[in-house]
Amino acid sequence: MKIKKLFEDAIIYPSNEWKKMIILGIIFLVISIFNILPMFGIALNNYIAMDILNLIYLILLIVFTLIISGYTLSITRMTINNVGGNAPEFDWVKNITDGVKVLILTISYYIIPALIILIVLYATGTIDIVNQLINTYVSYGSINPMLESISTTDNPLIFVVLMIASILYILFSLLFLIGKAVLAETNSLIMAVNMIEVLKKIAKIGWKNYVFWLIIFLAISYIIGIVSESIAVIPLIGIITVTLIINPYVEMFSARSLGLIYKEYNES
Questions:
Q1: Residue 84 class from Cβ within 10 Å (0-12 exposed, 13-18 middle, 19+ buried)?
Q2: What is the C-alpha separation between 114 and 120, in angstroms, rounded?
Q3: Are 73 and 184 in contact (CB under 8 A)?
Q4: Residue 108 confidence (pLDDT) above 90
Q5: Digit-coded pLDDT (tens) for 236-264
Q6: CB of 76 within 8 A of CB of 251?
Q7: What letter does residue 245 receive in the DSSP assignment?
Q8: What's the pTM?
């Protein structure tokens, strides 16, 4: 399957499974409920039982996030194993179990670059600057003020640290994606975290093919992101549309696309 055909399949795939996409969208709505309710004039901070509501929301957030991760993994699994052309049914227990595996896999891959960056931050004395940047982002809720703070800093080492962090993030993300595909295929965390085996899988795909696929994938995701932001500015309806339709579409498209590129070059 050519890369072009691969993406045509992945783009169409969610729209052919709109019922399951809507179920996924409802899960996204539940996760986003605290952001949506104020649009109806409901101020939850006025409730006496706010702490209880927060606890319930936290539990739902964790459970539904695991379900989303697990369900999208099942899409990748069915794609790789070529089990029919339809999206898998929701299996809540299996989805949560798979979601936990994806969480463990994510931690396993990103803990290494995180530790390296932490060591570099302390070694270069730039940890305080990074803390200020994080506080700036949290305060404004936007990346733009943080970027402005970086551009005005008088410590050039921060740029070196950011460059190292970017390289490590990209490298381990490349490994993680195929590790996730290995997890989908084998259902084995041990095999998925084995970076040597993951590198062999990437070698089968070919770094050129893999990077080319990733560039196109990111370009499509960027376009969807622009459309999503444009829709989100519409009061209430925009946010609900993005949450209910676009977010689940992106998840299903991403899972299908990953499964297809992996299957194309790793079939025995």
A1: exposed
A2: 10
A3: yes
A4: yes
A5: 788 889 999 999 999 999 999 999 999 98
A6: no
A7: I
A8: 0.85
CA distances from 60 to 19, 31, 69, 96, 251 (A): 22, 7, 14, 12, 19
The whole-angstrom separation of Cα 103 and Cα 107 is: 6
* Cα–Cα distance, 105 to 189 (Å, whole number): 7
pLDDT by residue (tens digit) across 124-175? 777 776 676 666 655 555 555 555 555 556 566 777 888 888 899 999 999 9
CB 88 within 8 A of CB 62: no
Nearest to 178 by CA among 81, 259, 74: 259
Burial class (CB in 10 A: 0-12, 13-18, 19+), 130: middle
In whole angstroms, give the CA distance from residue 164 to residue 202.
23
Distance CA 64, CA 82 (A): 27
Structure tokens at 52: 């209880």
Q: Please provide the distance, in angstroms rounded to a whole number, between the alpha carbons at the two ends of the chain.
A: 15
d(CA 92, CA 131): 39
- Tens digits of per-residue pLDDT, 203-229? 999 999 999 999 999 999 999 999 998
Q: Count of residues for the chain?
A: 268
Q: Report CA 257 to chain centroid distance, whole Å.
A: 13
Q: Residue 234 region, left (φ>0) first, then alpha (ψ -120 to 50), else beta?
A: beta
* Among the listed residues 192, 172, 193, the one whose alpha carbon sits nearest the alpha carbon of residue 182: 192
Which residue type occupies 142? S
Tokens, residue 16: 């052919």
Q: CA–CA separation, 113 vs 74, rounded Å?
A: 27
